[in-house]
Amino acid sequence: MIDESRPVTTNQHGNHDDLVKVVMRHLRAPFQKPIQAHNREAFNQAQQLLADWDGPLILDSCCGVGESTAWLARENPDALVIGVDKSAHRLARHAHYQAAEAGHRYLLVRADLMDFWRLAVAAHWQPKQHYILYPNPWPKSAHFSRRWHGSPVWPYVIGLGGELVMRSNWVMYLTEVASSLALVNCAATLSPLLHQHQPITPFERKYQRSRQQLWELRAQLPEDGRYFSAIEAE
Description:
The structure is a single chain. The model is unreliable at 229-234 (pLDDT under 50). Helix content is 34%, strand content 17%. The chain has helices spanning 19-28, 37-51, 67-75, 88-92, 94-97, 113-122, 154-159, 171-182, 202-209; strands spanning 57-61, 80-85, 106-110, 129-133, 162-168, 188-192, 215-221. The radius of gyration is 17 Å and the shape is globular. It has one domain: Rossmann fold (3-Layer(aba) Sandwich). It contains nine helices and seven strands, in the order H-H-E-H-E-H-H-E-H-E-H-E-H-E-H-E. The chain is of the alpha/beta class. A seven-stranded mixed β-sheet has the order 3-2-1-4-5-7-6, sandwiched between helices.
C-alpha cells in the first residue's frame, strides 16, 4: 500500500490575526533563552569546517534524513552544504538517501535550530542560500507561535541573509512567511511546484504520491543587518 498523506486542515481563514503583532514583538527583542551545551558543541563542529572554507555556503535546515543535503551538494559542487536536524534517528537513516558523489562537500549536524541559527548569526555566517523544506505547519490557530515565523528565533533566520527557499504543502503557511518578510521590506515570490518535479525529501515524495499541490517560496533576505540591531551576539 502506498503511504499517502492527508492535506493540511486548519481553523484559520487567512493569515493569523496576530501575525504582525507577534513578528514585530520578536523583531524588537533578542531571544534570551540560554543555548544548550550540546547545540554549541555541534555548531562548533560546523564552524571549524567552515573556517577552512572560502567558497559559497548553503544551509539546509530541518534536513531530516539528509536527502536534500546530499542533493544540494551534488547540484552545487562549488559549495559547502551543511544540513541540520535535531533528530538522531532521522540522521542515522542518511545512508539510504545519500545521493551525492564522492568529493561533494556536505556535513550533517545534529542540533536544535533554535540555538543553531542564533549561533550562526553571532558567528556572522552568510549563506548563499538557506533551505527550509517541509513540514513545520502547526496548522491550528492556537499553535501559531510554533511556526518558524511565529517563533522568537525568526529574526535570526532573516538575519542570516542569503536567498531563503522554503517549500510546503500548505500554501497559507508560506503566505504568512511572505507577510512576515514584508514587515522588513523584503519581497518574497510564491510559486506552485509542478507535480512531476523531482522530489528531494521523503516528505515531498509522499506529498506527491498523495497528489497534493506543493508550493515554493523564495526571498532574497537583506544582507546589511539594518533591521536587526536588537539582535545581540552571544
